[in-house]
Amino acid sequence: MIARYLWEAGSVIIGLMGLSHLRATLWTNKLFPRNAALIEEMKKSSVVLTEELTMWKAWMGFNATHSSGAMFIGITNFYLALTSFTFLQSSQFLLICTLLAMGFYVWVAAKYWMKIVLGMLSVATACFIVAYILMMMNKG
Prior knowledge:
By secondary structure, the protein is mostly helical.
């Protein structure tokens, strides 16, 4: 039962982080550069790949899809833990994919993001890891 609660806790944390990031991206200016001239330059500058895509559109699109990925991990894992924990326990593929995704988020956070984000991701990842260990111990 503890494994289930830990898996749900990790899921809620990453899901809410994704939702918060989406809100900050689309409905606030919190992820905008402080330099207004840089925003204008990003809106005028296209990427090498195609002139259709400006750096501003790429920035906003990246942040929105990044948010949806975190929300997907959180919602899917929470739903499976809540409604089909036995199935989740038996699916090494889903468990390992979640652990790898969370590990990647932690690595990126450590390298590029704010300490608070790293801390929250580390807590969520620790919940998933401990839950996974408990699941594996209960199998044998």
